[in-house]
């Protein structure tokens, strides 16, 4: 019997796949290893489920996008969880992740947590001005608006350690009683309380809870060719095609409409600084790779 389903959890080579027959514990055929392809949470797969035999994943449907870390496929949107304090928000980290999601056609929604401790409206204004939706949460707020936005979509909660993802998932799904971590005062971050990707069903869609990451881990989310980076910063769109030079990098070139817009206050300085830093890092990495 062949069944179509979606992988909702992957642990140690076992793929828990939701099908019309319920959730099946499956292994993957060796052909995937030969092709250097690994099934992951979010994948639509075909499962061979024969009587008295272990269910096997036989094929993986075409993916509309893929994150390598955390391993997740077919996302509609990402909830990028940002703490207002403890740990302090890192604009560069936020912008680098957003650029990766933009490159994969994944909508970014920012969730600012711990807003009872520190107002984050000024930082959020940078992103709402670019067209990104923002939510604000604290221990006393419910998650009804987030649930409503996520309904019918495949979304993921992503954020660095200690920002409050586990507490947030508890409010979205009170029945889960997910383990929460305490902030390490010494390190300025929290313990990783989620250890693998797990999709939780929600009103015709899913929300994926993902492990927290450190700043170092961000490199594993994806690298964007430097020539494509400007297209991942929405604020640049009205100006990027109006530069004097067609191959303008929007750094120090004369006649650059992007840097002119920056000087006129039409592009936030923090967003431009992130762009310039990512561009520089990418150019250096590409040079090493060529050599």
Mean pLDDT: 85
> Would you state the CATH class of the largest domain?
Alpha Beta
Structural shape: globular
Q: Helicity level, as a percent range?
A: 25-40%
- Total helix count? 8
In spatial order, strands of the major sheet run 10-9-8-11-15-14
The unreliable regions are 178-194
Compute the number of structural domains.
3
**Name of the CATH homologous superfamily of the largest domain:** P-loop containing nucleotide triphosphate hydrolases
Distance between the termini: 51 Å
Characteristics:
291 residues; alpha/beta; OB fold (Dihydrolipoamide Acetyltransferase, E2P); Rossmann fold; Ribonucleotide Reductase Protein R1, domain 1; 6-stranded mixed β-sheet; 5-stranded mixed beta barrel; 8 helices; 25% helix
Question: Your description of this structure?
Answer:
This protein has 291 residues and is of the alpha/beta class. It folds into three domains: 2-61, Nucleic acid-binding proteins (OB fold (Dihydrolipoamide Acetyltransferase, E2P), Beta Barrel), CATH 2.40.50.140; 67-220, Rossmann fold; 224-290, Orthogonal Bundle (Ribonucleotide Reductase Protein R1, domain 1). Helix content is 25%, strand content 25%. The protein contains eight helices and 15 strands. The chain has helices at residues 31-34, 91-103, 121-128, 144-150, 165-172, 226-229, 257-263, 269-290; strands at residues 2-11, 14-19, 22-28, 44-48, 56-60, 66-67, 72-73, 77-83, 107-113, 133-136, 154-158, 183-184, 189-190, 198-202, 205-209. β1 and β2 (14-19) form a beta hairpin. α2 crosses α8. The longest helix is centred in the C-terminal third of the chain and has 22 residues, at 269-290. The protein starts with a strand and ends with a helix.
């Amino acid at each position: 019997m062949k069944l179509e389903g979606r992988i909702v959890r992957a642990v140690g080579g076992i793929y828990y796949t939701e099908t019309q027959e319920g959730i099946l514990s499956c292994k993957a055929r060796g052909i995937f290893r030969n092709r250097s392809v690994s099934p992951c949470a979010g994948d639509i797969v075909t499962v061979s489920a024969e009587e008295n035999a272990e269910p096997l994943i036989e094929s993986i449907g075409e993916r509309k996008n893929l994150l390598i870390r955390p391993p997740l496929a077919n996302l509609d949107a990402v909830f990028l969880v940002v703490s207002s304090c403890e740990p302090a928000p890192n604009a560069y980290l936020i912008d680098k992740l957003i650029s990766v999601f933009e490159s994969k056609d994944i909508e970014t929604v920012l969730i600012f947590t711990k807003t009872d401790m520190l107002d984050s409206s000024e930082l959020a204004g940078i992103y709402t001005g670019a067209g990104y939706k923002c939510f604000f949460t604290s221990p006393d707020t419910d998650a009804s608006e987030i649930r409503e936005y996520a309904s019918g979509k495949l979304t993921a909660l992503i954020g660095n350690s200690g920002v409050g993802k586990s507490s947030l998932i508890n409010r979205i799904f009170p029945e889960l009683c997910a383990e929460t971590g305490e902030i390490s005062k010494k390190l300025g971050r929290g313990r990783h309380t989620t250890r693998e990707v797990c999709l939780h069903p929600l009103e015709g869609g899913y929300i994926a809870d993902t492990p927290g990451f450190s700043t170092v881990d961000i490199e594993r989310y994806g690298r964007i060719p430097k020539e494509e980076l400007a297209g991942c910063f929405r604020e640049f769109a009205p100006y990027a095609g109006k530069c004097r030079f067609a191959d303008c990098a929007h750094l120090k070139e004369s006649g650059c409409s992007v840097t002119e817009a920056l000087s006129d206050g039409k592009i936030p300085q923090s967003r431009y600084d992130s762009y310039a830093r990512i561009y520089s890092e990418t150019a250096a990495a590409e040079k090493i790779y060529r050599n």
